[in-house]
UniProtKB/TrEMBL annotation:
This is Calcium-binding protein. One of its GO terms (molecular function) is calcium ion binding. Transmembrane segments: none annotated. It comes from Streptomyces seoulensis. Residues 4-39, 54-89 form the EF-hand domain. It comes from the Bacteria.
Length: 176
């Protein structure tokens, strides 16, 4: 496995542990859903509900695939096994990525402006300088916007164990 992917897995675990109790549990995903939907300026109820459902599905997928000892929570050690079978998470990650990117494009023109991108990424727990570096790596246009499809692909790459040298590495580098 790529070192970059291990760093990402550890970072994602830390971010996902939204209540900071050291393991992943349903409350983490409820917390993140409420934070992200609260940051989703301009989005309608449907888009927010889709995001909340995507977080719920994310937890259910993790619990079904990774809770090796069946105690209803996931330790970092259990979570690391996600890299062994990435295809089991692809559908869940795809829906999560599309629901999140949709919140970044409330007017549906296919473009995401930096301020809303930053607000959503902060709500998930990423740090400001890393978010800016990521947005820049996505190659914003003259109006400082990126394409929805670019962000969807970037989120999917971020969770892929075999990727390196991707824009998402900017989320890891300054944090660890
Ligand atoms: Ca937790
Ligand atoms: Ca467990």
């Amino acid at each position: 496995m790529r070192t970059e992917a291990i760093d990402r897995v550890t970072l994602v675990f830390t971010l996902f542990d939204a209540n900071g109790n050291g393991h992943l549990d349903p409350e983490d995903f409820e917390l993140m859903a409420s934070r992200v939907t609260a940051a989703a300026e301009g989005s309608g109820e449907g888009a927010r509900a889709r995001m909340a459902a995507a977080f719920q599905r994310y937890w259910e997928t993790l619990e079904a695939e990774l809770d090796a000892d069946g105690d209803g929570r996931i330790t970092l050690e259990e979570y690391r096994a996600c890299v062994l079978a990435p295809e089991r998470f692809a559908g869940t990650v795809r829906e999560f990525a599309e629901a999140l990117a949709a919140l970044g494009d409330p007017d549906g023109d296919g473009a995401i402006e930096r301020p809303l991108f930053t607000a959503l990424m902060r709500a998930i727990g990423f740090a400001g300088p890393n978010i800016d570096a990521l947005f820049d790596a996505f190659g914003p246009d003259a109006e400082d916007r990126i394409a929805v499809a670019t962000w969807v692909a970037g989120i999917e790459d971020f969770y892929a164990p075999d990727k390196a040298g991707i824009p998402g590495d900017h989320l890891v580098s300054a944090v660890v």
